[in-house]
Amino acid sequence: MSETQDADAKPTGGAARFWPLAVLALGFVLFFVFDLQRFVTLDTLRDNRTDLSQWVAANLILAILIYIAAYALMAAFSLPGALVATLTGGFLFGTWLGGAATVIGATIGASILFIAARTALADLLRSKAGGAIARMEEGFKKNAFSYLLFLRLVPAFPFWLVNLAPAFLGVSLRTFVTATFLGIIPGTFVFASLGNGLGAIFDAGGTPDLGLLRQPQVIGPLLALAALSLLPILYRRFRRAP
Question: What is the number of domains present in the chain?
Fold first, then answer.
């Protein structure tokens, strides 16, 4: 191959790494262009609950697989409606099966976005940011699992943001997947449990009180688990202290 051909091939290879992220960005835009968010509502679930429940009862395995795939796509494309989707999982499959399917789907989708972002932008951001990002990356790498677990357990941080930030800070895929999987379990099962009770609420003609998710008895345990996830970091700092 000639030097000219080599030179032409390099830009193509460089541009190719942006395709996964471009596809995810396009999917995010199309979701709103075609007004698909109208389907991800509790009203839609309420109006179609009988047909959905009957179909799930007759096709349980297929329904679970479709749900996991749909949830993975929502997470990968950073689409709104994750809470409604989690409640739907609890409604259709029960607290434990619905919660487990949600954790699997969310972890798969988060990992897809993480890989796409790391492939496309991580090196570019490091080269532009210089020493600042390098120092941040070094600190994050030392305690990546604890930091990520904390960010997953605290519901104050957007799911998509926690998917992207580690990709730019050199976190390994294994650490990302493990911390994501474990960190989203408590909150997911809380939401799935609420979804499991939606049938009675719909039958009574009411709407679920999502404000319950902000009550101390719900938030308190999540914050306690988040604090525990930081203990290894505090312990290491204490040991290094003079």
Answer: 1
Q: If you write DSSP's letter for every residue of 38-78 in order, what string do you get? A: GGSSHHHHHHHHHHHHHHHHHSHHHHHHHHHHHHHHHHHTT
Q: Are 132 and 36 in contact (CB under 8 A)?
A: no
Residue carrying structure tokens 């990968």: 76
Distance CA 18, CA 16 (A): 5
Q: Are the beta carbons of 28 and 79 closer than 8 angstroms?
A: yes
Residue closest to 180 by CA, chosen among 110, 77, 80: 110
Structure tokens at 205: 């003609």
Distance, CA of 106 to CA of 17 (rounded, Å): 23
Which structure tokens are listed for 159? Answer: 């799911």
Backbone φ and ψ for 94, nearest 5 degrees, come out as: 90, 170
The structure tokens 């040991």 sit at 239
Structural domain boundaries enclosing 214: 3-240
Residue whose entry in the numeric block shows the structure tokens 């995810």:
24
Measure the CA–CA gap between 49 and 201, rounded to whole angstroms.
12
pLDDT digits (tens, 9 = 90+) for 24-65: 899 999 999 998 889 899 899 999 999 999 999 999 999 999
Chain segment 115-138, per-residue pLDDT in tens: 998 888 666 555 554 554 555 566
pTM for the full predicted model = 0.82
